[in-house]
């Protein structure tokens, strides 16, 4: 499942983006856009408190984050993205940690794969 193009476009307009860079060694399945924006991640279940991270890049199927804490692979978390139309409420997207890399003693690069848009889970129930 991927993020629909219109929702991805909306997110990218709300976040500050970098110029697109293509790397030959990139193994990602979908192109990502460089982004610099703080987000609050909400762990699913009893795995901890909300944490502030920085979005590094974003695509329709995944997200790259920078955070002060490591997260085990497989951990699920929700990011409530602000929308252009505040009346719609945040767009809640569920991700699963796919990889973690320590960049420095107190900084981690966290790669998340999109699971679904949370509102879609409620609609299917």
Short recap of the structure:
The protein is built from 2 helices and 7 strands. The protein has a 6-stranded antiparallel beta barrel. By secondary structure, it is mainly beta.
Write the layout of secondary structure elements.
Elements: H1 5-14, E1 16-17, E2 33-43, E3 51-58, E4 62-67, E5 76-81, E6 91-104, E7 107-117, H2 118-124
Antiparallel strand pairs: 1-2, 2-3, 2-5, 3-4, 4-7, 5-6, 6-7
Structural overview:
This protein is mainly beta. The protein is 14% helix and 46% strand. It has 2 helices and 7 strands; from the N terminus they run αβββββββα. It has helices at residues 5-14, 118-124, and strands spanning 16-17, 33-43, 51-58, 62-67, 76-81, 91-104, 107-117. Strands 2-3-4-7-6-5 form a 6-stranded antiparallel barrel. The longest helix is centred in the first third of the chain and has 10 residues, at 5-14. The two termini are 17 Å apart. Mean pLDDT is 80; it is low at 121-125.
What key attributes describe this structure?
mainly beta, disordered C terminus
The major β-sheet equals: 6 strands, antiparallel, barrel
Helix/strand class: mainly beta
Mean pLDDT score, rounded?
Answer: 80
Radius of gyration: 14 Å
**Which runs of at least 5 residues are low in confidence (pLDDT < 50)?**
121-125
The number of E-state strands comes to 7
Oligomeric status of the shown chains?
Answer: single chain
Q: Provide the helix percentage.
A: 10-25%
Global geometry: globular
Share of β-strand residues = over 45%
Strand order of the largest sheet: 2-3-4-7-6-5
Counted by DSSP, the helix tally is 2
Order of helices and strands: HEEEEEEEH
Distance between the termini: 17 Å
